[in-house]
Amino acid sequence: MAENNNAYWSANIRLVTICLVIWALCSYGFAILLRPMLSGIAVGGTDLGFWFAQQGSILVFLALIFFYAWRMNKLDKEFGVDEQ
Amino acid sequence: MDQFTLNLLVVGASFALYIGIAIWARAGTTSEFYAAGQGVNPVINGMATAADWMSAASFISMAGLIAFVGYNNSTFLMGWTGGYVLMAMLLAPYLRKFGKYTVPEFVGDRYYSTSARVVAVICLLVISITYVIGQMTGAGVAFSRFLEVSSTQGLLIASTVVFIYAVLGGMKGITYTQVAQYIVLIVAYTIPAVFISLQLTGNPIPGLGLFSTMPSTGEPLLVTLNGLLTDLGFNAYTTGSKPWLMALFTLSLMIGTAGLPHVIIRFFTVPKVADARWSAGWALVFISLLYLTAPAVGAMARLNIMTTMWPNGVEGEPVAQADLPNWFQTWSATGLLGVEDKNGDGLIQYYNENSPAMQEMAAARGWTGNELVRFNQDILVLANPEIAQLPGWVIALIAAGGLAAALSTAAGLLLAISSAISHDLIKSVFNPNISEKAELFWARVSMAFAIALATYLGIKPPGFAAQVVALAFGLAAATLFPTLMMGIFSKRMNAPGATLGMVAGLVVTCAYLFTYLGFAFIPGTNLLANNADNWLFGIPPTHFGPIGALINFAVAYAVSSVTAPPPKHIQDLVESVRIPRGAGAALAK
Question: Helix, strand, coil: what percent of chain B each, to 5?
Answer without folding.
Answer: 75, 0, 25
